[in-house]
Amino acid sequence: MRKRSVVASFAVVLTLVAGGCSSSSDQASKSDSDKAATSDTASDSGDTNNSGDSGGTPSNPDSPCDLVSQEDAEAAFGGIELDLDEGFRDDACDYSAADPSEMASLTVEYDAGGLEGMKLEDLVDILADEDADVTPVDGLGDSAYAFKVISSDTLQVAIGDGLLTITMNGGPEDSVAAMTTVAESAIEKL
Questions:
Q1: Overall pTM > 0.70
Q2: DSSP secondary structure letters along 52-113
Q3: What are the respective helix, strand and coil percentages of the chain, to the nearest 5?
């Protein structure tokens, strides 16, 4: 029971991190113009690093749905027909099964300031300490980890200070491979 509570707490922590929330007074006082200046500096310097290999943090897309097409989402589920859940959330792109009996959904989120100087590894250590099933995923961003929280499979990818989160419910047997494919496609579009 304690493990489930810690895992659920970790999911909340990651949601707060992905939302850019922090208790740090430095981060709380950081203005939007400071963030824009940081983003503009990366753009002005010609930094178009979309690979996430420590060369910078890509800015937020105009829409999270710019990162994953409906075709890519459906392919991740082996061809299950998905519908875009428009207007559900502004900070995420949500797809769910057209046939509700399939109980499948995919959510893609990216926040350019999602980590703000923290390390994804530090957050993942919380799960590892509780014997949760955390799997490092090589070749994505600066670091990437897949884990399961209750019935959701999640892949988180650190790209500079940015955090890409792919969450899959009712996915294929090898959900890590499916989420990795979605993440690779999303990273190319950042």
A1: yes
A2: -SSS--PPPPSSGGGSS-HHHHHHHTTS--EEE-TTS-SSSEEEEESSGGG--EEEEEEETT
A3: 40, 20, 40
* Tokens at 188, concatenated: 């190319």
CA angle, residues 117, 122, 124, in degrees to nearest 5: 125
Contact predicate 108/187, CB 8 Å:
no
Q: Is 118 left (phi over 0), alpha (psi -120 to 50) or beta?
A: beta
Residue type, 70: Q
Please tell me whether residue 171 adopts helix, strand or coil conformation.
Answer: coil
> Is the Cβ–Cβ distance between 160 and 52 less than 8 Å?
yes
Please tell me the predicted confidence (pLDDT) of residue 33: 37
